[in-house]
Amino acid sequence: MGSAFNEMGEGPEHSxxxxxxxxxxxxxxxxxxxxxxxxxEYLFRKVGITFAVYGEGGDPERLIPFDIIxxxxxxxxxxxxAQGLSQRVRALNAFLxxxxxxxxxxxxxxxxxSLVLRNEQFRPEMEGFAPPGGVYTHIAGIDLVRTGPDDFYxxxxxxxxxxxxxxxLENREAMLRLFPRLFSRxxxxxVGRYPEELLETLKAAAPERAGPDPTVAILTPGHFNSAYYxxxxxxxxxxxxxxxxxxLCVENDVVHMRTTAGPRRVDVIYRRxxxxxxxxxxxxxxxMLGVPGLMxxxxxxxxxxxxxxxxxxxxxxxxxxxxxxMIRFYLGEKPRLANVPTFLCEREDDRAHVLSRLDELVxxxxxxxxxxxxxxxxxxxxxxxxxFAARIRANPSHYIAQPTLAxxxxxxxxxxxxAPRHVDLRPFVLSTRDQVRIVPGGLTRVALRExxxxxxxxxxxxxxxxxxxxxxxxxxxxxxxxxxxQGYISC
Length: 491
Prior knowledge:
It is built from 14 helices and 25 strands. 29% of the residues lie in helices and 22% in strands. It has two domains: 1-188 and 317-340 and 405-470, no CATH class; 208-302, Rossmann fold (3-Layer(aba) Sandwich), CATH 3.40.50. By secondary structure, it is α+β, with helices and mostly antiparallel strands. Helix 3 packs across helix 12. It has helices at 19-27, 30-47, 75-99, 104-107, 113-117, 165-178, 180-184, 194-204, 228-238, 294-299, 312-315, 323-331, 348-356, 382-394; strands at residues 9-10, 13-14, 50-52, 61-63, 66-73, 139-148, 151-158, 216-219, 241-243, 248-251, 254-257, 264-265, 268-271, 304-306, 338-339, 343-344, 361-365, 375-376, 399-403, 409-414, 417-426, 428-431, 436-438, 443-446, 462-468. It comes from Sabulicella glaciei.
């Protein structure tokens, strides 16, 4: 792994996007930064912005660490990313429609048939069924990493139930409160329209019979889920109900929500429950989280589900290497965003390469998430590498491997000093039949431990506000407070 690209720049040679931030850091005493960090923690604690960490003793609810130094992108950088993100998600939706329909990409031999049809994430229940509007992944979170001034890579696609957008919105609100002067020195693209655009996206997915004002609800597994705060936050911001499985019932293939005024028909469900637990009649019969008969109502065209069941096949890490081919096959375009080179351990040659270079590679579970089940070879012990080698030999199809990239760094407040830390970026992409929308920025996740490349909050990472600078002539920063979320809302 080579030296990391510093997005702010070194010494007096700061990037233009970071010029004001660099001046602010140089002029602000360390004790003032520390006081602002404490104030930020107080705000987040007061609201109760927590996430759950499973498998550990004690109280699993924790504050997600928030770093007060923003990550800054120039508008030209963002525009290139947005074009690539839109292209990628359009191709992923086309892939989902195809593999549950005509399967043309499989017949053409562009993707191995067995890799799709025998994949645990492939849902035969979805074959031959087209969701309302023909959109499968309405909300996608695409993880990006940077290695140089113009070098961005897609690290993974999240097409099922991507989380983290509430942190993006709350981080912006915190920065507006904590640093209004710094904010006013920039023209920063607002992110506060996301809940409104999400609601428009969900309503656009409704069955035609629902009319111009369909009823939308968020289906949550409940308060023990790690993203429960986000479910409640988004429901409040959109003005819709957050419900659990027991709050819904299906009669004659129609979904109703129990309310104090009696049953109310539901037209669109933004589900934050995994496929397996969505409907005990269709998937796991022991599920206590889902809604019996929900899939029958969905297939009858009486309710829309966002995202559609079966989207997991599009974000499986073994499918990921083929996304550039999807773009060429379905869109007839050259991919705008590159993949990280990936080795599939189920292939004999790839497996031999991975096993011989475990000290150089990152190994991941093909269906893993949250930083679990991962080996970062250069930072692992000999015993850990030997353990992973045994796992790969025992279940080669469960693992993929990638080079250890030198992720870019941004200035981060670490203790009493500012130091570079590695980051990634998760923009959120909203899709309807006719449009792809992306609010400028996304969630920057930062590896707070020195030298660490793991940014996941479950593995000790934190978050930052992501500023996309408008070009000269854009709206002044002072007016943007009117376009952000109107304050902290807790459930």
